[in-house]
Each structure stands twice: as C-alpha cells, then as structure tokens.
Amino acid sequence: MDHGEAVLSAGLKTKLTILELHQRIGHIASDAMRKLVEDKRVVGVELEDDGEEMGTCELCEFVKTMRKRVRKEREELLRGAT
Ligand SMILES: [Zn+2]
After folding, report:
1. Which residues surround ligand 1, an ion (CB under 5 A)?
2. Ligand 1 center from residue 59 Cα (angstroms)
C-alpha cells in the first residue's frame, strides 16, 4: 500500500515536528504551540513531540538579530542627540 495516499485520507493527521509546526502556524513560541495542540486548537496536526527543545528557526534567529541591531542603532542615535 502506498503510504503517500494514506496521508491524504480523511481523519489522518499530519505529523509535524515542533519546529515545522512553529513555522507553519506563524512562528509562535514552543510553549504556546504545545498548549494549542493540547487544547485541540490546531486540527489535523499531530505533534511529533519528543520532549526536546524546538531547535533553531532560521527566520526567528534572523528577526532577533535585526531587532538587536535596530535597538542598538536607536540607542546610538539617542546618545548622539543628547
Ligand atoms: Zn520561527
């Protein structure tokens, strides 16, 4: 039996790792995601939860870096203005 077809059948859930789910539902925190799945707020998804940390999301890391840079530039601007 072809496994690929089975996945498309009704009632079966997509198995996602915590990182994949994070990227799919809008880059929210891992604790919040676990809660969403526990509360059945995310349908059609089964969390492949091995109890490990989410791992590194490249987009989130990028955003974090950008925020840090913006904050630093703003501080430097403010320092320069006074
Ligand atoms: Zn992310």
Report:
1. 27, 57, 59-60
2. 5
pTM > 0.90: no
For the chain, the C-alpha Rg in angstroms (whole number) is 19
80 C-alpha to ligand 1 centroid (Å): 34
Query: Which distant-in-sequence residues (6+ apart) come within 8 Å of 30 by Cβ?
Result: 18, 22, 53, 54
Report the alpha-carbon distance of residue 56 to residue 54 in Å, rounded.
7
Single-letter code of the amino acid located at 70: V
Contact 21, 33 (CB under 8 A): yes
Condensed to tens digits (0 to 9), the pLDDT of residues 20-61 reads 999 998 999 988 988 888 898 888 888 887 777 788 999 999
